[in-house]
Amino acid sequence: MGIIDFVFPKRCLNCGVSGFYICNSCLGLVDRAFCKCIYCGNYSYWGRTHKSCNRRGRIDGAFAIWRYEGVVRKALLKFKYSFSYDIVDELVKRSINDIKNYPFNLGSVLSTSVPMKSGKERWRGFNQASLIGVKVAYEMGWKFDDDILIKTKNTRSQAGLVRRERIKNLRGAFEINNKYKKNFKEYDSLVVFDDVLTTGSTIRECGEVLKKAGAKVVWGITIAS
Ligand SMILES: [Zn+2]
Ligand SMILES: [Zn+2]
User: Fold this and answer.
1) Which ligand is nearest to the CA of 40?
2) CA distance 209 to 129
3) What is the CA(74)–ligand 1 centre distance, in A?
4) Distance from Cα 210 to the centre of ligand 2, integer Å
5) What is the residue range of 53's domain?
6) What is the 3 state secondary structure string of 22-58?
């Protein structure tokens, strides 16, 4: 129990009913995320990159569990601005069955999260994507390391940029941490976590860095889209 929970008892972030941050009835109002190929934006099964979109060096797919709306959106925002283990716990608990139902065989998995995105996050001292990643990886029995990717370039905030600008903004922004360059190739698949999938440009840029360094299969997983 964190200090925040002690001072303010848990209430649903959407309707205010006590007991949880995410109550069943409010979660019932949130749709599942639309599964799309992050390269063309069109529907694809579980977000797998279409054969026709999958050129050399591109990632194998990315999927989100929920739409970024209602109580899921409120939970992610609340988590972003007031750190609470309980919120991430509830988000992951409510999403894990879908991740377990993932239909492709990933074999042995090494997972990581997108590096901190802005000075603001660094100031707050925690990386939301990494906290989600730790919990999901634990539930899935995957290995997790949050410093496989490092950010080498200070980028502008992605908010307010259109797809093309986002991709350009992030180009060359990530690198693999030297100490992982050898051992990540021992795994069948790599998974990159983030909190929200918008255009997919962050997951895409991170994943392509891993592919370039020799990763066989790379998927992105996010809570919402
Ligand atoms: Zn509610
Ligand atoms: Zn496509």
Assistant:
1) 2
2) 18
3) 11
4) 20
5) 3-224
6) CCHHHHCCCCECCCECCCCCCECHHHECCCCCCCCCC
pTM for the model stands at 0.88
Total domains, the chain: 1
**Average confidence score pLDDT of the chain:** 88
Ligand 1 centroid to residue 12 C-alpha, Å? 5
Cα angle at 62 between 56 and 64, to 5 degrees?
170
CA angle 86-125-178, nearest 5°?
A: 110
Give the environment of ion ligand 2: residues with CB less than 5 A: 37, 39-40, 50, 53
Residues linked to residue 36 through DSSP beta bridges, in sequence order: 43
Question: Which residues, chain by chain, have CB under 5 Å from ion ligand 1?
Answer: 12, 14-15, 23, 26
pLDDT at 210 over 90: yes
Backbone torsions φ then ψ of 113, nearest 5 degrees: -125, 160
pLDDT of 73-105, one tens digit each?
Answer: 999 999 887 778 889 999 999 999 999 998 888
Q: How confident is the model at residue 167 (pLDDT cuts 50, 70, 90)?
A: confident
